[in-house]
Amino acid sequence: METIESILENIGYKLINHGYYYTTNALYREGSDPTSLTIYPNKNIVMDWVTGEKMSIQSLIMKSLKLEDPNKIKEWLKNKNVIINTEKPEPKIDEPRVFPIEYIENLKPDHSYWINRGVNENTLKEFGGGLWVKDGFLKNYYVFPVWDAQKRLVGLAGRNTDSNSNKPKWKLKGDKKLWKYPLFLNHQEIIKRKQIILIESIGNCLSLYDVGCKNTMVMFGVELSFEIINYLLKFNINNIIVSTDNDEQAGKYAAQKIYKKVGKYFDKHSIKIKFPYRKDFSEQSLEENKKWVEENVRN
User: Fold this and answer.
1) Are domains 101-178 and 183-296 of this chain identical in fold?
2) DSSP letters along the chain, please?
3) What is the model's pLDDT at position 85?
4) Scanning 4, 66, 146, 275, which has the fewest C-beta atoms within 10 Å of its C-beta?
5) Which CATH number fits domain 183-296: 1.10.10.60, 3.40.50.11270, 3.40.50.720, 3.40.1360.10?
6) What Å distances lie between residue 9 and 28, 32, 297, CA to CA?
């Protein structure tokens, strides 16, 4: 008796196991992106993230074998002694939480915290952030809106502006593993250059923007999400610079993990680890950041 996995592999699909689901390329339409299809064997669901189509595993096999008669696929599977489950409920597909625009309407255009750290005011206006003056979770934090490709507000990233406070340095509202920031500003720059710099925080992003380096992606920490990997694959971003913080405990260890993770999908010759000279880009002077960009980014 064959399994669904073995049947798909015999057809030619190279399945990547993620536990309860698999990802693979859309062989049925000659696609090469290894994450464009998500297959849930126990749910009998296949999602094609490029076309937006949802189908059953039977339909995927039909399309792959170029069969047009549904009875033929039933007979084909029967000969393989395979029964595909169709009774279980569909899995919940990750969708970002969307916040009402009213959340950011009252942000105070007070950029003094970042200006005092050397960030250009025009850069800050481009990112659309401001001081959260209302009561609640983000009070007295400088908040950056996080937009998605549909220009929906899918998150809030707040930086503590009080150096004497014991509150967390950053507070995030929303599902950061689904964020691709700041694509609402720099998508065209990234696909034009086919190059991206993976960094930990918005502070690093602002410092690089100030010296004209705009092809960045903020990870909001040291974990690289599959959303970002999918983006790199979809647009064939084949020059990847990993620039986590230059510290022994977290940043350098994270850089090696990210290098290995990205290396599963890209030629490792296209991936470089390039740390900032100091702990991070926001601790470097404007001249140091310009020099770093000239040495590591310009091509």
Assistant:
1) no
2) ---HHHHHHHHT---EE-SS-EEE--GGGT---TTSEEEETTTTEEEETTTTEEE-HHHHHHHHHT---HHHHHHHHHHTT------SPPPPPP------GGGGTT-B---HHHHTTT--HHHHHHHT-EE--SSSTTTTEEEEEEE-TT--EEEEEEEE--TT--S-SEEEEE-GGG--BTHHHHHHHHHHHTEEEEES-HHHHHHHHTTT---EEE-SSS---HHHHHHHHHTT--EEEE---S-TTTHHHHHHHHHHHHTTTS-GGGEEE---SSSSGGGS-HHHHHHHHHHHT--
3) 56
4) 66
5) 3.40.1360.10
6) 13, 15, 40
pLDDT of residue 69: 79
pLDDT digits (tens, 9 = 90+) for 128-138: 999 999 888 89
Report which of residues 276 and 21 the model is more confident about. 276
- Residue 146 structure tokens: 């996080």
Q: What is the pTM of this model?
A: 0.69
Spans of all domains in the chain: 4-79, 101-178, 183-296
Picking from 205, 200, 212, 204, the residue whose alpha carbon sits closest to that of residue 183 is 205
User: How many of the other CB atoms lie within 10 Å of CB of 47?
Assistant: 19
Q: How many CB atoms lie within 10 A of CB 296?
A: 16
Query: Which has more pLDDT, 273 or 65?
Result: 273
